[in-house]
Specification:
This protein has 454 residues and is α+β, with helices and mostly antiparallel strands. Helix content is 34%, strand content 20%. It is built from 13 helices and 19 strands. The strands form 6 sheets. Strands 1-2-6-3-7-18 form a 6-stranded mixed beta sheet, with helices on one face. Strands 12-14-10-15 form a 4-stranded antiparallel beta sheet. Strands 4-5-19 form a 3-stranded antiparallel beta sheet.
Length: 454
C-alpha cells in the first residue's frame, strides 16, 4: 500500500495528535526535583496502551522505565525505540512568555517545557506507529520501546537497567529521536554522541571568611588557588594540558570525513541562532571541534560574595564545576583518574569530587541498516538527509552500542532553535507532524529490507 496514506492520515488527525501532545506537556515530569515523574510515566503508558502496545512500568533504583513491545514471531527484524519522558526544571520562570506547563501556540510553534526535549519527539514516535497501523496495517518488524525518566539527570540507572534486562531488550537496531534538525532545516541522521564527565574542584583557606584588610596577605584566598590550578590544566588556545588527556581518541574514517564535508555551514546564521554573532569559523573547523574534539568546560564557579555592592572578605572556600565532553574512545573514569593525578601534583590540598559521567559512542556510517534508515528519512522529508558521524551533546547511547552491542541511529525531529533546556522551549507543529511521518517511513523501510534479506 502507498505511503501517501500516511501523510493523508497525519493531516486529517492533526488536531487529535496535538491534543495528545498538549496532555503530555501539561503533565510535569521534572526528574531533578522528582516532580510528577511517576505520574507522567503512567500517562505515557496509557497512551501506548491505547495504540495497542503491550506496556509495563519497570522499576529502577530511581525513576521508572516505561517498556513496551509489539511482537510478531514471524517478523525477523526488531527495532528498539528509545526516548525520555522527563524534562528539565523550567526556571527562570520570569523568562517564559507563557506558562511552561500550559502549552501555547504562537507562530506555528508549541511552547512548553518538554515540547522539543523530548516529549514532542517521543510522542511523534508513538504516533508514527499508530499511523502505520491505521494506514498500512500489520507491522513488518517487531518494536520494543524504552522510555526512561532520568535522561535529564544523566540517565543514572539506565545502564544497570539495560544490564539487568539484556534478554528482554534483544534487538537489531536502536532508534532515537532527540536533539535538533540541522541549522539549515535539513533532516539529519546522527551516528554518535560525545561522552561526558562532571567533576567539582574545591579549595579551602581559613575555616571562616576573613576581613580582606585586617587579614589581607595573611590568610590564603582559595579562589586564587583554583585559578592557579586551572591555568595548569588548559592553555590560552584551549589545549588541555593534563597528561594523557588526548590518548585513545579514535579518528574518523575516510568515509566519515567526507560526510562531514557535505554538511552545510553558515557561520552568520549559526552565530545568530546560538546568540553569539561573533562566531567566525569555517564549517570544517566547526564540525571538527563539535564532533571530534573533547572539551574542558567550566560550567560554574562559586565563592565569596556576589550580591549588590561590595563585601570585603577573603572567602574561606571556592568551588568550580567542570563538565568535560569526551569522544570515542576516551573513557570517563580514565580521564577522571588523570585529572586527580594532575591535581595531586599541582594542588594536593584541592578536593576532587566525581559528579557523574557518560561514555561516548559511535556507530559505523557504512552499515547497511544505517543506509536503510537514511533512505527512509529521505523518503519522509523528500530531501536527502545529512549524515553526521557524531553530535556535540551527550546521550546514554553507549548502553546500546557497548552493553547491547547494537548499532544505534539518532534522527532528530525538533527544529534547530527549539530552545531545549531554556525558557520558551518549543517545537514547530510541522516538525512534530513530520516526525510522525518519518517514524512510519523508517518502520516501512526496515520491514522491506528485512523481507529482502530473509
Amino acid at each position: 500500500m502507498s505511503m501517501e496514506k500516511v501523510k493523508d492520515f497525519v493531516a486529517s488527525n492533526q488536531l487529535a495528535f496535538l491534543d495528545q501532545l498538549y496532555s503530555l506537556l501539561r503533565q510535569k515530569s521534572i526528574s531533578a526535583q522528582n516532580d510528577g515523574v511517576e505520574e507522567c510515566a503512567k500517562l505515557v503508558m496509557e497512551m501506548m496502551n491505547e495504540i495497542g502496545i503491550t506496556t509495563k512500568l519497570i522499576d529502577t533504583d530511581g525513576h521508572p522505565v516505561v517498556y513496551g513491545e509489539l511482537i510478531n514471531p514471524e517478523n525477523t527484524f526488531t527495532l528498539l525505540i528509545y526516548g525520555h519522558y522527563d524534562v528539565q526544571p523550567p526556571e527562570p520562570l520570569e523568562k517564559w512568555v507563557s506558562n511552561p506547563f500550559e502549552p501555547e501556540i504562537r507562530d506555528g510553534r508549541i511552547y512548553a517545557r518538554g515540547a522539543g526535549d523530548n516529549k514532542g519527539q517521543l510522542l511523534a514516535q508513538l504516533l508514527g506507529v499508530k499511523t502505520y497501523l491505521e494506514t498500512i496495517g500489520e507491522l513488518p518488524i517487531n518494536l520494543k520501546f524504552v522510555f526512561e525518566g532520568e535522561e535529564e539527570i544523566g540517565s543514572i540507572h539506565l545502564a544497570s537497567f539495560v544490564e539487568k534486562h539484556k534478554e528482554l531488550l534483544k534487538a537489531d537496531l536502536v532508534y532515537t529521536s532527540d536533539g535538533s534538525l540541522h541549522e539549515s532545516g535539513s533532516p539529519i541522521v546522527l551516528l554518535g554522541v560525545r561522552g561526558m564527565l562532571a567533576i567539582e574542584l574545591e579549595a579551602k583557606g581559613a575555616d571562616r571568611d576573613n576581613h580582606s584588610g585586617n587579614k589581607g596577605n595573611i590568610v590564603p584566598n582559595p579562589v586564587w588557588k583554583l585559578i592557579d590550578l586551572l591555568q595548569t590544566m588548559r592553555d590560552k588556545e584551549g589545549n588541555v594540558l593534563i597528561e594523557g588527556f588526548y590518548d585513545n581518541i579514535l579518528p574518523l574514517s575516510d568515509y566519515e570525513t567526507e560526510l562531514l564535508k557535505k554538511i552545510p555551514f553558515d557561520a552568520k546564521s549559526v552565530g545568530e541562532k546560538i546568540g553569539y554573532p561573533q562566531l567566525h569559523m569555517n564549517g570544517e573547523t566547526y564540525y571538527q571541534k563539535l564532533i571530534m574534539e573533547p572539551t574542558f568546560n567550566i560550567c560554574g564557579i562559586e565563592s565569596g560574595y556576589t550580591g549588590e555592592g561590595v563585601k570585603t572578605i577573603i572567602p574561606s572556600t571556592a568551588r568550580v564545576k567542570l563538565d568535560i565532553r569526551l569522544v570515542v574512545d576516551q573513557d570517563p573514569m580514565d580521564i577522571f583518574n588523570k585529572i586527580k593525578s594532575h591535581v595531586s601534583e599541582h594542588a594536593p590540598d584541592v578536593k576532587v569530587t566525581y559528579l557523574g559521567s557518560m561514555q561516548p559512542s559511535r556507530t559505523n556510517a557504512e552499515l547497511k541498516v544505517v543506509q536503510t534508515v537514511v533512505h527512509a528519512v529521505q523518503q519522509a522529508y523528500e530531501t536527502e538527509p545529512l549524515i553526521q558521524p557524531g553530535m556535540g551533546g551527550s546521550l546514554p547511547n553507549y548502553v546500546w552500542t557497548k552493553l547491547l552491542e547494537l548499532p544505534s541511529v539518532i534522527v532528530p525531529y525538533a527544529n534547530f532553535d527549539q530552545g531545549n533546556h531554556s525558557p520558551n522551549e518549543n517545537i514547530k507543529i510541522k516538525n512534530f507532524l513530520n516526525g510522525v511521518i518519518c517514524t512510519a517511513h523508517v518502520i516501512d523501510a526496515l520491514g522491506k529490507s528485512a523481507n529482502r534479506n530473509s
